[in-house]
Amino acid sequence: MEDLEPPAGRLLRMVREAERIVVFTGAGISTESGIPDFRSPGGMWTKAMPIDFQDYVSSAEMRAEAWRRKFAMEPTFRAARPNDGHKAVAHLVRIGKVRHVITQNIDNLHQASGIPADRIIELHGNASYARCLACGLRHEIDDIRAAFEETGAAPDCRSCGGIVKTATISFGQAMPEEEMLRAEAATLDCDLFIAIGTSLVVYPAAGFPLMAKRNGAGLVIVNRDPTDLDCHADLVVSDEIGTVLGPMIALNG
User: Fold this and answer.
1) Is pTM beyond 0.90 here?
2) Where is each Deacetylase sirtuin-type domain found (predicted)?
3) Which candidate in 110, 124, 139, 232 is catalytic?
4) Cys-Cys with 241: which of 51, 85, 177, 246 at CB 3.0–4.6 Å?
């Protein structure tokens, strides 16, 4: 009879039965909030290739181009609001079902949904602010934009004169060691791992679902399109994320 149970219903039952859930999110959870999926056909990376970290560091021209692209996208990011998918995950954190949210997203929407920062593990950083690559000082996007519009050049750190970059992980840049270790620890501790809105092709981050599965956790993949890891999952739900997760907002602890 289990095969006759609707996938969304089975997911809800698995969530009820689990005690230590890790949610792993990718771009798909945010497309329903209007944030573009950069890798999809028609996405930003099909129109302009991403700037490699070494090119950003070595070229003032590339830094200026990176900031131009950032400011062009800023209205889209600022207009985005957490959707039912984000709200459902936040609710599961609030009632103690979800221990950690590991995310590949840089849009700050998990924080905006009310999830405490210490429960969110950002593997690719956060685009809502910037940091100096030399001294680590935080810089606000609005301040950088004001300077950029005045000079047309990427601004330097106001403290040490170093290179300032959005607090994200670019192509060619090393993954954040602390966040990777936290993600691994959370993955090995969970009894249910739910991958939401991710194509599961970007490594090493995409290795976490299999790590959880091999450690005995249940594995659920919620994604509109098939992934290479579907064959390893206990449950695959191919539907709109907000529709699938929305009912969980009413779940009791």
Assistant:
1) yes
2) 1-253
3) 124
4) 85
